[in-house]
Amino acid sequence: MKTKIIAHRGASKQAPENTMPAFELAYHQKADGIETDVQLTKDNIPVLIHDEHLKRTTNGTGYIKDYTFEQLNNFDAGSWFTDKFASTKIISLEEFLIWAKDKALYLNIELKNNKIDYKNLESIVYELIEHYQLLNRTTLSTFNPSSVKRLKSFNKEIEVAFLTSKRNKNLVRYAQELGANALHIKYRLFTPLLVNQCHQAEMAIRVYTVNRLANMKKCFNFDCDGIFTDVPEKALQYREMVDQ
Ligand code: G3P
Ligand code: MG
Fold first, then answer.
1. Domains, the chain
2. Which InterPro entries match (predicted)?
């Protein structure tokens, strides 16, 4: 089985994370898929940005939840990275889905509702993905266990992943009890045993954030279903070289 190479926040080492330039680059580099993070605006528009706060990746301040989508348009989400990306905008999930619709990409939409439990985020995201008929190649993921359950309650068929960075010897059983179809784990939790346990439970396992060749090698050798990487081009070259 080929381990999928999923661009983490787009090709985020070479372009500002979670923006169109980072997604375009990942697509042109031929990544198998793209992972992105969703927060909710004051007017309930899901937008793609990792942090709850604007500070780290834009020239703004304050929380996403306190701005309307139109107001967010005033901020620059590229200059913090390099001047070359000045005036790059924060985009909505809908804009991203429209862009992805005609491209052969696997999508992982991560709901960022572990710090702020945004009301109705699950249904808003689910309905958009359903509307654009992308459910069959999308995984919805979250660190919030209750959110996994809510997502599965809309539609048993959708793939939902439980995300974790915490060690727990009953992790696979716990994720299964939530109704998750996949486990997305931080690299330091990765063991071949966990991969086997997931596969025996018919769950997929994907690992973040894998940027080093030695770590990629382990994930490829032990048949992880996917890796999230900031450097998809490097991962693709390496996968080709080891002929996985
Ligand atoms: O979805 C995998 C990974 O993105 C989870 O952590 O903080 O990079 O969103 P984070
Ligand atoms: Mg993420």
1. 4-51+93-242 (3.20.20.190)
2. GP_PDE_dom, PLC-like_Pdiesterase_TIM-brl
CA distances from 174 to 22, 145, 178, 179, 183 (A): 34, 10, 6, 9, 10
Global confidence as pTM: 0.98
User: Does 209 sit behind a cis peptide bond, omega within 30 degrees of 0 on the bond before it?
Assistant: yes
50 CB less than 6 Å from ligand 1?
yes
Percent of the chain with pLDDT over 70: 100
- 132-135's contacts with Cβ under 8 Å and 24+ in sequence apart are 132/97, 132/98, 132/101, 133/101, 134/97, 134/100, 134/101, 134/107
Contact 171, 149 (CB under 8 A): no
Distances (CA, A) of 203 to 4, 136, 199, 211, 229: 15, 16, 5, 24, 21
User: Helices 171-178 & 192-200, crossing angle to 10 degrees?
Assistant: 30
Quote the ligand 2 centre to 43 CA distance (angstroms). 22
pLDDT, tens digit, 9 for 90 and up, residues 124-155: 999 999 999 999 999 999 999 999 999 999 99
What atom in ligand 1 is closest to the CA of residue 50?
9
Catalytic site residues? Answer: 8, 50
Q: Is the ipTM of this complex over 0.85?
A: yes
- 37 Cβ inside 6 Å of ligand 1: yes
Q: What residues pair up with 109 in beta bridges, in sequence order?
A: 36, 140
Q: Which of 17, 35, 140 to mutate to test the pocket of ligand 1 (most atoms within 8 A of CB)?
A: 35
